[in-house]
Amino acid sequence: MRHTTSEQSGEIGHQTEIHGWDPELVPGSAGRTRRPEPGCPVEAALAAVAGRWTTLVLRELMGGPRGFTELRTRLPELSAKVLSERLRTLQESSLVTVERRRGFPVRTRYELTEAGRALRPLLVELYATGERLLRLREAELPARPARFT
C-alpha cells in the first residue's frame, strides 16, 4: 500500500500524515508531532517554566544575580526546600548558574544563563495572556442574582 498524499507533499513527517499545519503555530518541522516530544519547541519552553513557583523564581532572577537569602526575602511564602529544588532544577536545565563564594557562611549567588534570559519574552507573554484570559472568563460568567437576606 502506498501513501501518495505524504509522498507527494514533500513535508517532513510520518508517511500516513495528511495534517495541514498552521504555519504560525507550527513554523518548523520540530513541532509537527502527534504527542508531546522533548524536541518540540513548545514542549521545551513549557518544561523550562514548569513547576509551581518556577515562574516567580525566574522573574526574580531576571533582575540580576541573587543570593539564596535574597530570593527567600523576595518570595517569603516560598519554603527554603522548594526554593532549593527549583534552583536545582533550573541549574540542571542549564537555565541558571550557581556561584559559591568562600567564607563563613558560604554565600551562594544564582544567575540566569543566556538560555534562562531567553525566557523573558515568554514570561511577559504568559502574563499578558493570563490577564486576557481572566478578563474573558470574568466577562463570560453568568450574572448572579442578588441575594436577599
From TrEMBL:
Domain HTH hxlR-type: 40-138
Name of one Pfam family that matches: HxlR
Region (Disordered): 1-38
Highest taxon of source: Bacteria
InterPro entries, sorted: HTH_HxlR, WH-like_DNA-bd_sf, WH_DNA-bd_sf
UniProtKB keywords: DNA-binding, Transcription, Transcription regulation
SUPFAM superfamilies given in the database record: Winged helix' DNA-binding domain (SSF46785)
Tagged with keyword Iron-sulfur: no
Gene3D superfamilies: Winged helix-like DNA-binding domain superfamily/Winged helix DNA-binding domain
Protein's UniProt name: Helix-turn-helix transcriptional regulator
Record organism: Streptomyces polyasparticus
